[in-house]
């Protein structure tokens, strides 16, 4: 059992869809977002999201988001990211036309 990971992960972040207020608690070390049904957070109605669009993951004591070579890119706080980005509460991640706020 990896108790260090559990302790360091601490409070699990929540991704809140800003349009629908739907809440997704991140309870795994890595989750994927996109249109494909095998993603953790599926965005079937967002035609601007790629099948496998982005990944949110826990590493080195922090939560990060990375773009998975999507067609339209991934933005954090209205800035297109080209490398993994360290997340903080209040950050907004845009995947396709869907925006998630970190809580």
Feature tags:
single chain, disordered N terminus, 1 helix, six-stranded antiparallel sheet, mainly beta, 103 residues
List the helices and strands in order. HEEEEEEEEEEE
Q: What's the helical proportion of residues?
A: under 10%
Task: Report the principal-axis shape.
Answer: globular
Major beta sheet, strand line-up: 2-1-11-10-7-8
Termini separation comes to: 27 Å
The count of strands amounts to: 11
Largest sheet: 6 strands, antiparallel
Helix count equals 1
Overall pLDDT: 91
Based on secondary structure, the structural category is mainly beta
Strand composition percent:
35-45%
> Could you tell me the radius of gyration in angstroms?
13 Å
User: What ranges have pLDDT less than 50 throughout 5 or more consecutive residues?
Assistant: 1-9
Write structural notes for this entry.
The chain is built from one helix and eleven strands, in the order αβββββββββββ. Mean pLDDT is 91; it is low at 1-9. A six-stranded antiparallel sheet has the order 2-1-11-10-7-8, with no helix packed on it. A five-stranded mixed sheet has the order 4-3-5-6-9, with no helix packed on it. It has one helix at residues 3-9, and strands spanning 14-17, 23-25, 30-34, 41-42, 54-59, 62-67, 74-76, 79-80, 85-86, 92-95, 98-102. The chain is mainly beta.
In short:
The chain is mostly beta strands. It has one helix and eleven strands.
How are the secondary structure elements laid out?
Blueprint: H1 3-9, E1 14-17, E2 23-25, E3 30-34, E4 41-42, E5 54-59, E6 62-67, E7 74-76, E8 79-80, E9 85-86, E10 92-95, E11 98-102
Parallel strand pairs: 3-4
Antiparallel strand pairs: 1-2, 1-11, 3-5, 5-6, 6-9, 7-8, 7-10, 10-11
């Amino acid at each position: 059992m990896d108790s260090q990971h559990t302790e360091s992960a601490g409070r699990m972040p929540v991704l809140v869809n800003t349009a629908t207020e739907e809440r997704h608690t991140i309870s795994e070390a890595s989750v994927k977002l996109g249109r494909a049904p095998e993603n953790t957070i599926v965005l079937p109605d967002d035609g601007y999201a790629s099948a496998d669009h982005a990944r949110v993951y826990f590493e080195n004591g922090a939560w990060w988001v990375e773009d998975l070579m999507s067609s339209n890119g991934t933005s954090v706080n209205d800035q297109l990211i080209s490398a993994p980005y360290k997340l903080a509460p209040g950050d907004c991640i845009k995947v396709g036309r869907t925006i998630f706020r970190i809580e």
